[in-house]
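WP5 quarterly update. Target: DUF4878 domain-containing protein. Source organism: Candidatus Thiodictyon syntrophicum. Length: 280 aa.
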Amino acid sequence: MNVRHYVAVVILINLLACGAEVALAQPPAATPTDAGPSSHWRFLRHDPDSLARLGGGDMVAGMNKLGEVGFELFIVTTANDQGAAGWLYFRQSPWHRPLPQPPIEYKLIDDQGITDLGLNSFADGLIKLENDGWQLAAITTRNGGAGWHFFFRNKVAMIPDSGAGAPAAASSSPGVAPAAGNFSTPGAAVQTLIAAATARNGELLSHCFADSAAEEFTSLRSQTASQKDLDDLATLFQGATVTDEQIKDDRHATVAVKLFTRNEKIALTKTADGWQVVDF
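Structure tokens (predicted):
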């Protein structure tokens, strides 16, 4: 994080702490899908009690309600030495708001829970969470160590388990096959690409690329990519965010994405199936 980014985050936290944005008792209504994208991020602040009220007594259920309309957790403050959460800050991308897809779901787990997932290995527990599509959003601290870990994932990119225990095709389960709205705008199409890539969802990825896409994406388009290719793509898009959308004409657009290692511009074209990726 550079100095400018750090200062911006500190200013944001101070503004929110002073009441520039108040926590809502109910999640905002989804913006109609025919509305144009806003140019501004939207921020919310909640404490655990207000989230529990929102979720009918369950804090995580309240977080999931916000996730259903695209609010992503990005900062959690620590309330005490035991690692309890203080304030939780959420943001909604301006490219996400016109289309509240994919919905976000949350998981709250402590050190021991992660260790148990990894069969007595904290590192293996983190790997298992990542393989299941969970990304770490924030943590609290407990007496100088880690307290609670807050994870999120995009539900649209999850592949359900079949009866045999093997991954089923995404289209075999209601709500998992890509909806037309996932590709209704260039920004929405790239959000879907990010979700599919981080979840290693080959079925959904195949819908993200146009027939005219660069040759290097042929295996993704035809669902013949190796596990290594899917892993590499997941690593590339881990934590990626859309930062700009530019529509050049009725068939061509570019979307800027901030990756962990660099900034990337993704070229898209409008097809009969919606906006699809051509190259990046």
